[in-house]
Amino acid sequence: MTDDRAPSAPAADGFPPTPGSLDPEALRRRALDALLTARARTATLTDSVEDGELTAQHSPLMSPLVWDLAHIGNQEEQWLLRAVGGRQALRPEIDGLYDAFEHPRSARPSLPLLAPAEARTYASDVRGRALDILEAAPLHEGGRPLERAGFAFGMIAQHEQQHDETMLITHQLRSGPAALTAPGPPDPTDAGSLPGEVLVPAGPFTMGTSAEPWALDNERPAHRREVAAFHLDTSPVTCGAYQRFMADGGYTDPRWWAPEGWDMVREHGLTAPLFWHRDAGQWLRRRFGVTEPVPDDEPVLHVSWYEADAYARWAGRRLPTESEWEKAARHDPATGRSLRYPWGDTDPTPEHANLGQRHLRPARAGAYPAGRAPSGAGQLIGDVWEWTSSDFLPYPGFVAFPYREYSDVFFGPGHKVLRGGSFAVDQVACRGTFRNWDLPVRRQIFSGFRTARDA
C-alpha cells in the first residue's frame, strides 16, 4: 500500500496504471465523480422511505438505515477531514456510536442515534468540507500514503458504496410495498450457443495487484500463482438448474452437505433459497416488495456458501478456488497479462456488466457478451457475488493499511471468499482483484455461484 514506484514504471501485475494514477488532476476528477455518485445513491436509498422506516430495524441481521447514513458521514469525517485534512473533529462524541466493531447490528437500534434529519445534515456538512480538502490535496505519487493517487478519497467512495449495498439488502428485507424500482437488464443475444463450461489451461498467472491505485489492502500485493487446468461454468448457476437440485431432494439428503450446513438446514427447516416460497405448484420469490415467479434462466440468488457447496457436490462438481476464479476472470493467455477486468483494462460500461443498482436484479445467464473474459466465461463481474471454496486469507507480503480492522481481523477459516460483485455493487468497489468475504451461513446478501471441475 506504500509503493514508491515512479509513475512511469511498469505495473508489477501486468496492466498499466489507470490514467488517473498518472495525473493528479485526472485523479481528482475521478475521486470527485466517485464521491458524488455514491452520495446520490445514498440519497436514493434513504429518501425513498419515511423516517419511521429509516429508524426501524427491518432485520436483526442489519442496522437501521439511519445508522448506515450517519456511519457513512462519520467514516468520511474521520478519514478525510481529520486524517487527510488535519481538521478538528466535528462530532467526536458520536465516534463510538458509529463504530461497527463496538456495537453489533442487533444492538444498534437501542443506541442514541442521530435522527434522520440530523444524520442527513451531518453527512452533508462533512461532505462539503471533504470536497474542499479534495480540491487542495496533493495527489502525486510521492505524497503521503493516504493522499497518494487519491487513495483515501477512493477508499471512502468504496466504503460508502459498500454501505449502499448493505442498505439495499435492508430494502430487500423490509416488508411492505416496493420503495425502489428499476428497468430490467438486457437479454442475452447468444445464450443458446454458449458452451456449458470453459477450459482454463494449467499454468501460472499474476494474482492480486500492486498497481491499482485504489485497491484495498487485501488485494495486495501482486504475486504469481500456479493453477492446474480446470473447467468452469460459463455462466453462474441458474434458478432453473438449482430447482433440479431441490426437486431431487437436495435439501433432504445429508450426503451433499458439509456437517455445519446440514445442521443449518435442519435447524431452520430450509427448503429453498431465501425469499422463495411455493404456491399452487410454482416457485415464487419476493424481490424488493414485489412477488413474482422465479425466472428459470436467471442466476440463483440469496444462497449461502453451504447451499452452493451442496449443489456443487450434487452436480458432481465443486466450487472454484479463489485463485481459479481470478485466473478465469483476468488471465489473458495471448499476452500473459492479468487484466483489470475480464474484458480488459477499461472501466465498466453498461455493455460490460450489471452494476450500480441499475436493474435491481441479475441479468439472464449469457448476458453481456462484451464483458466476457479471454477464458470464455461471462458475467464474472456484476449480477451476483460468487462463492468460492477458499477461506479469506492474506496474500504473501500482505500489509494492513490504513487500519487493521478492514481486513486483517477477518482472516481465517471462519469466512469464505466471494468474488465478482453483484448488481448491487458500484464499479468503484468492484474489479477483477476485488475480494469480498462473509460467513458461510449468510443468505441475505446478493450471493450466487458457479461450479468447477478438474480437467
Automatic annotation (TrEMBL):
Keywords: Iron, Metal-binding, Monooxygenase, Oxidoreductase
Entries under PANTHER family matching the protein: HERCYNINE OXYGENASE (PTHR23150:SF36), SULFATASE MODIFYING FACTOR 1, 2 (PTHR23150)
InterPro entries assigned to the protein according to its UniProt record, in alphabetical order: CTDL_fold, DinB-like, DinB/YfiT-like, EgtB, EgtB_Actinobacteria, Sulfatase_Mod_Factor_Kinase, SUMF_dom, SUMF_sf
Positions of region (Disordered): 1-24
UniProt pathway annotation: Amino-acid biosynthesis; ergothioneine biosynthesis
Function: Catalyzes the oxidative sulfurization of hercynine (N-alpha,N-alpha,N-alpha-trimethyl-L-histidine) into hercynyl-gamma-L-glutamyl-L-cysteine sulfoxide, a step in the biosynthesis pathway of ergothioneine.
Spans traversing the lipid bilayer: none
Residues annotated to bind Fe cation: 71, 159, 163
Domain DinB-like: 35-167
Residues covered by the Sulfatase-modifying factor enzyme-like domain: 194-453
SUPFAM superfamilies, sorted: C-type lectin-like, DinB/YfiT-like putative metalloenzymes
Superkingdom of origin organism: Bacteria
Catalytic activity field: gamma-L-glutamyl-L-cysteine + hercynine + O2 = gamma-L-glutamyl-hercynylcysteine S-oxide + H2O
Residues annotated to bind gamma-L-glutamyl-L-cysteine: 105-108, 438, 442
Cofactor(s) listed: Fe(2+)
Organism, scientific name: Streptomyces microflavus
UniProt-recorded name of the protein: Hercynine oxygenase
Family from the record: Belongs to the EgtB family.
Enzyme class: oxidoreductase
GO MF: gamma-glutamyl hercynylcysteine sulfoxide synthase activity; iron ion binding
EC number(s) on file: 1.14.99.50
